[in-house]
Fold these 4 entries.
Entry 1:
Amino acid sequence: MVDLPERTPLLSLHDVSKRFVKPADAIDRIARVFGAKKEDEIVHAVDRVSLDIHRGEVVGLVGESGCGKSTLGRMAVGLHTLSSGTRTWQGEDIDKLPAAQKRTRQLAMQMIFQDPYASLNPRMRVLDIVGEAPVAHRMVAASQQKEFVEELLQRVGLDAALLRRFPHQFSGGQRARIGIARALAVRPELLVCDEAVAALDVSIQAQVLNLFIRLRDELNLTYLFISHDLGVVRHVSDRVVIMYLGRIVESASTEELFAQPNHPYTIGLLASAPTLDVKKIDFHAVSGEMPSPLHPPSGCHFHPRCPHAMPRCRVEQPLLKEIAPRHFSACHLNDD
Ligand code: SF4
C-alpha cells in the first residue's frame, strides 16, 4: 500500500459531469411529427464527481451496474468528453492543451476493457495488435517492433514465440494478457481497468490480478480499478471509492473502508458480504432496485433504499465530507 502524500495528483477530475441525451423512441418521434412538444430526456450518468489519483496509487471504483463507474473511467482517459468540470494531469488542464501535447497526455492514460476478445481485432496477429501503436507514435522504430513486442509478451507472462498468432488461438486469460501488453506498449503511467478480470475464471482472475500488482511495482504504474466485485477491489486497491447513481458516496483507504464503513449503502454492501476474501461479491443483497439515472430521486439518491432515510434526505443532497482523515462520506447522519 502506498502512503498518500499531500502533493499534486497525477490525474484529477474536478466536479465532472456527464449527461447523455436519450434518443427519442418511436412514439416520441411520431408525437413530434404531429406537433407534440417532447423534451429530450437526459441521463445523468456522472453528477459532479471529484476524484484525485496520486502516482503509484491503486484506486478501486465500485458500484452497481449503471452507477456511472465505467462512464467516469472513460471520462478519465478522454474516451468520453466532459459535459462539465475539468480534468488535470499533474495540475495541467488536459482539455486545454494544444493538440500534440494532449495526444501525449492521452497516451499516458490507457484503458483495459472487460472483454479482451471483443477489444482485440480478430484479423490481426499479436505482433501487430501490440506493436502497431508504439510504431505509429514513433516510440519504437519499425525495425525494433518484433523485439519490442517479444519483450512485452514476456513481461505479461506470455511466450514470446506466439507473436504471430491470432486472438482466437489464445485462452481467455492469455487474451487478457495480450490486452495488457497492448496497453503497456505506449508506456502509459495510468491504467484504467474496467472490469478487467470480470470475464475470467476465478483462478485465472487471481493470476491476472497478481500480474497487475507486479506491473505496478515494476513500472511504477497507477491504476483506477473499476469493478462491481468487492473481493477483487479489496485485493488490489489502496483506496476504495463507492459510487451510487452517478455520485461518489464514500471514499477511504481500503483497510478503513472495510473495517469502518460509514455510508448506509457501503454498510449494506459489506453486511451482505461476510466472506469477502472467498470469491465474487456482488450487490444483489442491498434491498431494492437502483433507480433509473433518467429520473434520479431528489435529495440523497439512495433515500428510497436507505433504512435510515429522514425527511431531509428526500430534499437535500448530502455533500461528501471528511469524517476522519482521508475518509469521506456523503450522508446527513454525519451532521448530528
Ligand atoms: Fe440514508 Fe439519508 Fe444518509 Fe442518504 S443521507 S444515506 S438517505 S441517511
Entry 2:
Amino acid sequence: MPPTSESTSRTAPRLFGTDGIRQVVGKEMTPVFVAEVGSAVSTYLQGEGEVLVARDFRTSSEAVARLLTGALLMNGVSVREMGVMPTPCLQFNIRALGASMGLTVTASHNPTEFNGIKFTGREGIELPRTAEEAIEQTLYKHDFVRASWDHVGSSHVDPDGIDRYVGSILQHTDVPAIRLAKPVVVLDPGNGTSALTSPNLLRELGCQLITLNANPDGHFPGRPSEPNEENLWALRKAVVGFGAALGVAHDGDADRVAFVDEKGAFLPGDVAMGLLAKTRLAERKGGVVVTSVTSSTLIEDVVKGGGGELVITRSGSLPVARGILEHQAIIGGEENGGYYWPEHQVARDGPMSSAKMVELLVHSGRPLSELVAELPRYHLSKTKVPLRPLLRDRVLARVHADLAAEANRLVSVDGHKAYYDDGWLLVRPSGTEPICRIFAEGHTPERARELMERGVRLVKEEVDHLSSELTAIY
Ligand code: MG
C-alpha cells in the first residue's frame, strides 16, 4: 500500500525490494503515488542537481516516467529525459554525464501488469539501503521539500544516450577480430529494451545477425521476459536451424543475459560466468573475481586454475558491485546471468556481456559447446520453504550449529553455506519475503537433491519446534 498521511506509526513500511519498487499498475502504483516518489527523490537530493529518467516499453512506462519527471521539476530538480533504453545503458550514462541520480521505469522480467522504478546513484550502481530508507521515510511522512515558483527545474530530451553506451562497448571489444570472423549470431531481446541497443551493437561488432522477438512491445508477445531454458525454446531451435555459433537472450531491461551454444543447448548462468571468468583471467594473467554465495564451485575451480583470487559477497547486484569496487576486480557476476565488466562500468550489463562472449568465441576459434565441455561439471538443486521473519534468527542459529558439526567448512556471509567433499548446501533466508531459500550443489544430480532435502528438513524441523514452543507460551 502507498503511504498515507493518516498513518501514525514512526517506521515506514518497506517499499524497496532487491531491485527498487515493483507494483501492480492501477492498484498500488497510482498516479498520486508515482508523483510522491518523484517528490521524495527531490527531497533526498534537497531540490538540487540533475536526474536522468529512462523507461522500458511497458504499456504504463511512459505515463510513469512523465509523472516522475513532472514531480522532480516542480521540486527544483532538473531532468534529462533519456527515453526508452535498457537499465545498464542508463547506468552507464549517469557516470558518463556526471548526473546526481538515475530513475528507470521498468519491472524487468515481472509480468505485464507490473511496473517499477529502479534507483541508481551517481556511481552508476544501485542506491545503498540507507538512501532507500531515507526515501521511504520521506514518502511515509509526506515530509517533502518544495521549490518556489522561481526555482523549478529545467528538462531536456537527450537523444544520444544509446550511442554513447554502445560506443563504450565497441571501444572495449576486439571489433577487428569479430569483423574478420563474421560469426552468425541469433539474438532474442524478448520484445524488451535491448531491441534498441543490441541489434545495432552486434552488427557494428561484425556479426551476421538474425533476430527473434526484436520488435519492442510492452505486451511481451514473443516469450515471458525471464530468459530461462524453458522460455528460450524458440531461440534454441533458431540457433540450430540457422547454423549459428551463438544464441543471445536478455531479460526485459537487459541487465542480464543468457546464452545458447551452437547445438541449441542452454548455458546455465554459472557455466557462462565460468567461461567468461576463465578467459578474462587468462587474458589478464590473474586478478580478482567477485561472485556471491549462490555461485557454483565451478567459479572457485576456474579462479584457482587461472591463478586468480575469488571474493565471495552476499547475494544481489549491489553487494557484488561494491565487492568489485573494493577489490578492483577484473570481472564479477552471479548465477542469474548478471555479469560486470569494470573497465566499461560497475553494473550488471547484458549487452556488454554478449559482446564479450562473441569476442571470446572468435578469439578461441572453437565451438561454444567444446569450450563448455572443458569446464568442471556440477549439478544444482534449489527450492524455498516458508519462514516467518519472527523465527528467522533462531532457525539460522540452529542451522549454523548443525551444519558446523557436519561440514568441512562453513561460510556465513549471507545465510550459511556448508561445504562437503562432494558438494555444498546454502540455507539463506530472503531479505524481502517470508521464505528461506535452499541451494545445493553436488557432483551428481542425486547428491544435489539429497543435500537440498537435508536443508529443507533442517529448516522445517526447527520451524515446527519453535512454532510449538510459541503456541505453548501464548
Ligand atoms: Mg533485469
Entry 3:
Amino acid sequence: MSFSLHGIGVSKGIAIGKVYVIDHDVVEVSEFSLSKQSLEDEVSRFKEALEIARQQLSRIRDNIPKNAPGDVAAFIDTHLLMLEDSSLSQVPIQIIYEKQCNAEWALKLQCDALVQIFDRMDDPYLSSRKQDVEHVVARVLRILRGYTELPAASMGELLSGAIVLADDLSPADTVMMQHHGILAFATEFGGTTSHTAILARSLGIPAIVGLHKARTYLQQGDMVIVDGFHGVLLGDPDEFILNYYRTRQREEKRYRAGLAKLKSAPVATADGTPIILHANIEFPEDMVAVKRVGSNGIGLYRTEFLFLHRREPPNEEEHFEAYLRVVNALKGGTITIRTLDLGADKQGADFAKLESHHSDSHMNNPALSLRAIRLCLRNIPEFKAQLRAILRVSAFGNVRMLLPMISSLQELTQVISLIEQVRQELSKDAIKFDPNMSLGLMVEVPAMAVCTDLFLPHVDFLSIGTNDLIQYTLAIDRCDDSVNYLYDPLHPAVLRLIKMSIDASNKVTKPISMCGEMASDSRYVRLLLGLGLRSFSVNPEAYLEVKQIILNSNLAALSKLASKVLKVGTQADINTLMQQINTQVVA
Ligand code: PEP
Ligand code: MG
C-alpha cells in the first residue's frame, strides 16, 4: 500500500527509482566456542575474509569515474590501509587463539575496543576515524557471514540509478555518490543549510533530509518517489501516483529547458539596472555546471572540499593546481576563492590533520569553536600554503580572496599581516602575483554585520553568508533538523543585519554580494533586490531561475515594499508583503 514520509526538501526535483539503503550499523554477531583443532581453520577463514574485503575495496577504487574528485579515492584508500593495519589484521587473530572463539566475535571485540579508544579522543580528526573503523569492520563481518553479493558488486553498479537512503551522509559521501549516478538521496537527519544539503543542490540531485526512522519503513530495492520540492518520500507508489509524478517530471524538464534559453541574456532588472550574478562552486569539476548556465564569475569557491577525506592537508602545489583549473576554465571572469572554512559540519567528513583545539578542551559547540579563520590561525604553515597558492594564481586571472568567519579586527589584522608576509616571500623568490588582488570578508557572524563600517576600510569587498548569519543570529544549529523550523531568512533581525551591511558598503562604495543560500532561493531574490542588493552568487542549479526573476523585477516598486518589510514584525505581516513582492507583475 502506498504511504508517504515527510521531511525537509533541501534540493528540488523529482526522482523515481529503487531504494539503496546505506546501513552504517555494525552487523549483529554472536560468540561461539571453538575446539583447539579448529582454530587454524578459523584464522584462515578470517584471513580470507580480509582478502575478499581488500579485493572489494580495490574494485570500488578502480571503478571511480575519472572526473571524480581526488578525495573520493583517498577515502577508499583510508579503508584499504585500515584493513592492513595490525589492529584489524593481527589482533583479532590473537583473540581467536586466546579466547578460542569465532572470527566474527574476535573482530567485534577488537572493533569495540578501538571504538572506545576513539570515543575518548579529543581530536575530532581522530575521533572521526571511528566511523571508518566501523565501516571496514562491517564489511569484513558481512563477508564472514556470507553476505558477499552486495559488497562484491562494484559501488557504481550498486548506486547507479538508485535513491540512496541513509541515517546521515557526509559531504564527501554525497560527492562520491553523485559520481556513481544516484538519482536522489534521503537522510534521517540533517538541516536545510548543512553542507551536504548545499552540495546536493549544487550537484542538482533531488534530496530530502530529516526523514526520521525512514529506514524502518523501507527496504533494499523498494520502489519510491522522492519529491525534493515538498520534502516528501512516497513509498510503494501505485500507478496513479506514479503517473502523476512522471507528468511532473516532464513538466520540470520543460521548465528547465525554457530557462536554458536565458543563458546568454545580460543580467539586468526589467527597469534596466545591471545586476552581478555569479556562481558558487565547491570543486574545479563544478565549472562544467557553471559553463552550462553561462555564469561569467565565481562569487564563492569553497576550498575546504580540497581537504576532505585525507590525512594530510593539501600542499601549496595541490591548492595552486586546483585554483588554476578554475581560472583557466573561466578565462577572464572574476574568481572569488575563499580560504579554508573547515569545522562545524564540515569536520564530520574526516578533515585533514590540522590542530583543532587544545587537548584539554572539548568542542561541545563546533560551530562556535575553532572553525574557519580561527582554525587557520592555529595552523599557520598550512594556512600560508593556501595564501601563497591563491596569490600565485592571481597572476593568471582575476582572482579575489575571501576570508570566512572573521569576527574581530584583531583577527583581520593578523591575516592581513600574514598575507603581507607571503607577498614579501613571493617577491623575494621572484614568483609572480597580482599586487592589487582584492581582499574581502564574509559577513556571516552578527558581530561583523553590525560593525561592517569598522572592517570596510581594511578590505575591498564583502560577501554575505546567510547560512551562518542566520544560524548565529537566531542561535540555531543549521544542521539540526529539530530546530530547523526556526531557521528563518525573513526574521526581522536577519533582514536588518543584511540591510545594515548593504547600506554600510554602499556608503563607502565598496562592492557587497550575497553568497549564502538565501541568494539562491527564488522566494527571496526580489526582496533582496528591494533591500539594495545588486550582486548575487548562487548555486549553478539555481542560477537560471534567479536570473529569470531578476529579469522580471522592477526595482522602484520593490524597494518601497522591501522597506515596509523591514518595519513589520509578525509573520503574517511579512507574508502579506512577501506575497506582494513575489507577485509583482512587470509590464
Ligand atoms: C554561508 O555561511 O552563508 C556561506 C556561504 O558559507 P558556508 O555555507 O560554506 O558556511
Ligand atoms: Mg559560512
Entry 4:
Amino acid sequence: MNKENIAGIKSRFFEDISNSQTEKSLYDVKVKYVGRNGELTKILKNLKNLPPEERKEIGPLANRARHEIEKAYEERKKELGERIDWEKEKIDVTLPGKKEEIGSLHPATLVYREIEKIFPLMGFEIVEGPELETDWYNFTSLNFPFDHPARDMQDTFWIKSDKKKLVLRTHTSPVQVRYMEKRKPPFRIIVPGRVFRNEATDAAHEHTLHQFEALVVGENINVGHFKYIAKLFFSAFFGKKVDIRLRPSFFPFTEPSFEFDISCTVCAGKGCPSCKNGGWLEIGGAGMVNQNVFVSAGYPRNRYQGFAWGFGIERLAMMKYKIDDIRWFESGDLRFIKQF
Ligand code: FA5
C-alpha cells in the first residue's frame, strides 16, 4: 500500500466519471471507489493494520482522496442534471395538434351587444341597476298601490330581510326612478338587465329572464317619438323594415299604456305559423310615464313628459335566431349554445 496506489485510484476515478453520461453510471463509479467495498474504502479500512509510520503518511492522503472523490462526484452529478436530454426533448412534428375549444356568445349576450351598439347611435346612455331591489323602487315608487292587485301582475321572489322589504327585481323599470333621482331631463337611457319572476315555466316563460328598458324624458316627448325610436331600433335589429302596432293596456307606471307588437319578421305581416297567422309578434309593454312616477323621483308634477318601455331580450333573441323554447336559454346545454 503506497502513495502511488492512491494517486492511481484518483486518476482512474476522474477518468471514469468524465466518461459517465448518465446519473446511474456515475453512481456506479462512485460505488466502485468509495462504496462499501470500494477500492479506496478498502484502503481506509486497512489503515488500522498498517505500521504507525505508514499509517501517518497514508491516512491523510486516503482521507483527502475520499473527499476529493465525493466532491467531484457531486459536481459531475450536477453537471449531468443540467444537461438537456435530447432523447426526451425530441418532438414528433407529424403528430396532430391539440384542438383548442373556442367558446361562443350566448344568444342573450348577442342581443345585448346589438342593443348596446344601436342605441348609443341614437344618443342613448346605457344604465344599469341592482338585481336585488327594495319594494320602493320595484313597486311603490312606480305607482303600484300597496293593496292593489297590480302587484300580482309580476309574481315576485321576496327576500327575507330584517331591514327593508327586498325583492329580486321583477322588471328593469325600478332603474327609472333610481336614475331620475340623480339626473334632470332631458335624457334618453336604455337599461338592459336580468329580472326574476316566480312563475311556472313553459316554452314562452322563464323564471329568470332579461329585459331592456327605455326611458326618454323631456318637456315635449310624445307617443310619436316612442313609435319613431322603436321603429328605427327594430328595423336596425332585424335588418329589415319592421312595422309596429300599439294596443291599449295597463301598467301602473304609465298612462296611457300600450302593448307593443312588431310585424312578423318571418312573413312580414301576411300570417304564418311563427305569428300564429296573426301577422304580429308581441314584444313588450310601453307607455307615457305616469306623473306619479316623476313625483316619486322628486320632479314637479306635470313639468315633464316621457315614454318608457320594457321589452324581453329572450323573446327578441327567439325571433331573431328562430329559437322555439325560452327554456333553452337557462338550460346550460352546450348543444344549444354552440350553435351561436
Ligand atoms: C313589464 O315588465 C313592464 N315593466 C314593462 C314596461 C316598462 C311597461 C316600461 C311600460 C313601461 P311585462 O310584465 O309585460 O311588463 O314584461 C315585459 C316583457 O318582458 C314581456 O312582453 C316579455 O317580452 C318579457 N317577459 C315578461 N315575463 C316573462 C317571462 N316570464 N318569460 C319571458 N319573458 C318575459
